[in-house]
Amino acid sequence: MAPLCYGMTLCILCIPPVPANLKPALRQYKPFVFFAVPLIINKMLDDTIGEFIRSKSGAAKLADHVHNPDFCEALRTIFMNAFGGNLGLMITGGAAMPEQLERLFLEQLKVPFVTGYGMTECTPTITLGHKETYVMKECGEPVPEGIELKIDSPDPRHVAGEVMVRGHVVFTGYYKNPEATRAVLSEDGWFRTGDLGTIDEMGRVFLVGRSKSMILGTNGQNIFPEEIEVVLNQLPYVQESLIVSRGGRLTALIVPNQNLLAEQNIDATTLGQIMDTNLSDLNKKIPAYSAVGSYEILFDPFAKTPKGSIKRFMYR
């Protein structure tokens, strides 16, 4: 509704949003604002400039992007032209943005990009970033109309707590399910989102995970698997991952990038060696209490919701 309220033309793709379908539609409509979940944006990136980013020379130039502005600008032009050449802002939500992709957009290619956060129960937008002040990992500030937001934590800036929302955009309850309604709505109208996060002095919200997916460590620490997965997904040949608890031990379920494996003729033995190294590197980058003890390699993509979130309950 928001685009229509601002007098914009709203175009909705009614066929699978794969690059083969998206690219001709983008060329035709030349959107100024593009909304999509990170999975779709990642597919478009891979289809347009993926081979340049994955090459050794390309990766090296991106890592030293300050001294390679022409290379970065060339990649930016290719990517932006794939969206019709008129793109002023890319908005993503519905799932966590991979840190590597976020850094590529913000620091290396300078793609105009922000993240939003919302739920159906809040019709749906709760927060939205501003491209002028956007920082890594934020999911935006509370929308100014109709939303109050607080973090249920003794120290909301530094200690994650449940995100709670109140306002006229918040629903009044689940249809014919008073028990479920009472579980999430307080008498004074605060809705418990089930998401955990912090909020900074600028009012920017940073999500760390879902309360239902939080794992209690052996020494009582709260472990947020999403934070580990963000790091793991940046390591070589990892397409996507899921952290689960198996017998009190953290295990990484890893889906490798099979296109890359085929391109480089990586066999099963070499893949195992790569993932052994990845596990070691992962544990150097995360707190000791959240160290991952083992991994399993899966060759089928994780089952996902329509918005692209992994159905975690299927892998416990």
Please characterize this protein's 3D structure.
One of its GO terms (cellular component) is membrane. InterPro entries: AMP-bd_C_sf, AMP-dep_synth/lig_dom, ANL_N_sf. With 316 residues, the chain is of the alpha+beta class. It has three domains: 2-111, no CATH class; 118-123 and 138-210, Luciferase, Domain 3 (Luciferase, domain 3, Roll); 215-315, ANL, C-terminal domain (GMP Synthetase, Chain A, domain 3, 2-Layer Sandwich). The chain contains ten helices and 14 strands. It has helices at residues 2-5, 19-29, 38-54, 56-63, 69-81, 99-109, 178-184, 225-232, 258-263, 268-285, and strands spanning 33-36, 89-92, 113-118, 125-128, 141-142, 148-152, 161-166, 191-199, 205-210, 215-216, 222-223, 238-246, 249-256, 294-297. The strands form four sheets. A five-stranded mixed beta sheet has the order 1-2-3-4-5. The mean pLDDT is 94.
Name the descriptors.
single chain, 316 residues, alpha+beta, Luciferase, domain 3, GMP Synthetase, Chain A, domain 3, 3 domains, 5-stranded mixed β-sheet, 4-stranded antiparallel β-sheet, 33% helix, globular, AMP-dep_synth/lig_dom, nucleotide-binding, ligase, long-chain fatty acid-CoA ligase activity
Quick description:
Residues 1-175 form the AMP-dependent synthetase/ligase domain. This protein has 316 residues and is an alpha+beta fold. 33% of the residues lie in helices and 22% in strands.
